[in-house]
């Protein structure tokens, strides 16, 4: 059975999306990006909301841009190789291969997908992740904590949900970013 992983960059004060935009520095650091590449390479399926998909679809053609560093090209190839499920009531079509649209998030369908998958899945974006967390579907949490405090926005963890987690891995990068991996108890 595959795991469902929720992983995002988050501010020091717990926001996955700042009210006014960026979360600070760190993700563009080649050391961090290479670590993320290695972390996501085994993923077989990405679960996205519309907005996160529209951000990530960049990777469908990123490899064709000239003079990109090898870690960027590798991430694009890994992303292209995975399946993508986009949950949206408004998106009419997708612009990436191996991608399908679902009109609503169905916890039972995700449970079945986890049961039949031999490669892990991720749920990406705080809104969609909140639904997966509330349904008890998330097995691991990967927080990439920046050195910035942003004061507001969309929280990494949704309000009203109690979780008891076990820290299984941590790493500090030269940029100051921290990766913390937690497993659901």
From TrEMBL:
<dbReference type="GO" id="GO:0009231">
    <property type="term" value="P:riboflavin biosynthetic process"/>
</dbReference>
<dbReference type="GO" id="GO:0008703">
    <property type="term" value="F:5-amino-6-(5-phosphoribosylamino)uracil reductase activity"/>
</dbReference>
<dbReference type="InterPro" id="IPR024072">
    <property type="entry name" value="DHFR-like_dom_sf"/>
</dbReference>
<dbReference type="Pfam" id="PF01872">
    <property type="entry name" value="RibD_C"/>
</dbReference>
<protein>
    <submittedName>
        <fullName>Deaminase</fullName>
    </submittedName>
</protein>
<dbReference type="InterPro" id="IPR050765">
    <property type="entry name" value="Riboflavin_Biosynth_HTPR"/>
</dbReference>
<feature type="domain" description="Bacterial bifunctional deaminase-reductase C-terminal">
    <location>
        <begin position="3"/>
        <end position="178"/>
    </location>
</feature>
<dbReference type="InterPro" id="IPR002734">
    <property type="entry name" value="RibDG_C"/>
</dbReference>
């Amino acid at each position: 059975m595959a795991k469902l992983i929720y992983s995002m960059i988050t501010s020091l004060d717990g926001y996955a999306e700042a009210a006014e935009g960026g979360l600070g520095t760190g993700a563009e650091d080649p050391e961090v990006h290479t670590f993320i590449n290695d972390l996501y390479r085994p993923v077989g399926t990405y679960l996205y909301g519309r907005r996160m998909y529209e951000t990530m679809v960049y990777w469908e053609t990123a490899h064709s841009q000239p003079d990109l560093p090898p870690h960027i090209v590798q991430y694009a190839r890994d992303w292209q190789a995975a399946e993508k499920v986009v949950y949206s009531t408004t998106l009419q079509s997708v612009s990436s291969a191996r991608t399908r649209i679902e009109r609503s998030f169905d916890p039972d369908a995700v449970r079945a997908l986890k049961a039949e998958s031999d490669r892990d899945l991720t749920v990406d974006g705080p809104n969609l992740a909140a639904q997966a967390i509330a349904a008890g579907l998330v097995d691991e949490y990967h927080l990439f904590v920046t050195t910035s405090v942003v004061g507001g926005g969309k929280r990494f963890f949704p309000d009203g949900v109690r979780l008891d987690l076990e820290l299984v891995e941590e790493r500090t990068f030269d940029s100051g970013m921290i990766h913390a991996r937690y497993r659901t108890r």
